[in-house]
Amino acid sequence: MKKTKYIIIAAAVLALIVFVIIRSCGAQSGMDEDMEMPEETATVERMTIENKISSKGEVVSSLEENLTPHTGWKLKETKAVKGEAIKEGDTILVYTNGSVMKAPYGLVVKEWNLPNKGGTFTDESSVTVAGTDVLKMDISVSEDKILDVRNGSPAVVKIKATGGKYKGNVSFVSDVGEYSGGLSEFTVSVTFDNDGKAKLGMNGRAVISLDKAENVLAVPVDAVYSDGDTAYVTVKKGDKTKDVEVETGLSNDEYTEIRSGLKEGDEVIVVSSDGEEWDEGIYY
User: What was the pLDDT predicted at 7?
Assistant: First the structure.
């Protein structure tokens, strides 16, 4: 009886060992299948490739200054309200002699430094204003991108509150960065014309165009790999493939310009970029 019991236990242990070995082999086989690089293809197309920088920022005035009242004259009353926009030519304040100070452009009064009503203006009297006709957005650009940004570069400012898009240009590129988190950040200003809806203090996003290539042949970036200084693309024709040397141009996060080596309509192999080497080349 005991001998039979031992035989049953030994058989169960042996069956368990066989089961574990089979499962292990199956899992390894599944892992090998998962490690195989899936083959995807794309067609060489003509398109516009553009490099951009995008960053959030606050809408501020492009012009702030102190307007100086006429020294020696006296204040009758103020017409503008602090923080409220007024148009060019509107009255800011009235003197006791009937003369007025008018807004030289659309603006907001930020601060008053005036005598009481009936008091005389001195050299220290002033009205601090911020223009509202031409606005700007200051954004931060990291040091790895700042050398691509130039004064005059075209840009678009998108303001969430108004739903508007405003064409503008880069008007300032700082030469002094502020170190933060391993990289230095540089201030870049984008200036744009107000349509009357944008208000100081609103937030939005500025998109700066860096480089642009129009009507060029292009492939997904993951279709291009390198061997030293030479770039290649694997072209697929039916069941056959061929590695073709290509000359590349402008690239962004999605596409790479192909200046020579391919023609429109060619089918190329695309491999997801995950840091793995493929065909002895390293993907960009």
Answer: 54
The per-residue DSSP string of 242-276 comes to: EEEEEEEEEE-SSEEEEEES--TT-EEEE---SS-
Residue with tokens 């279709």, as numbered in its chain = 223
Q: For residue 59, give the nearest of 127, 139, 129 by alpha carbon.
A: 139
Give per-residue pLDDT as tens, 96-150: 999 999 999 999 999 999 999 999 999 999 999 999 999 999 999 999 999 999 9
Helix (H) or strand (E) holding 85: strand 85-86
d(CA 201, CA 190): 15
Give the tens place of pLDDT for each residue, 207-266.
Answer: 999 988 999 999 999 999 998 899 999 999 998 999 999 999 998 889 999 999 999 999
Report how far residue 165's alpha carbon sits from residue 176's, in angstroms, rounded to the nearest whole number: 29
Contact of 224 with 284, CB cutoff 8 Å: yes
| Cβ-contact 75, 117 below 8 angstroms | yes
Angstrom distances, CA of residue 242 to CA of 40, 238, 255: 15, 11, 21
Tokens 């998108």 correspond to: 158
Question: Would you give the DSSP letter of residue 120?
Answer: B
Tell whether the torsion through CA atoms of 63, 66, 70 and 74 is positive or negative.
Answer: positive
Provide the CA 223 distance to its chain's centre, in angstroms.
Answer: 24
* Both tokens assigned to 131: 């223009």
- The 126-131 sheet, strands edge to edge: 64-67, 126-131, 107-113, 85-86
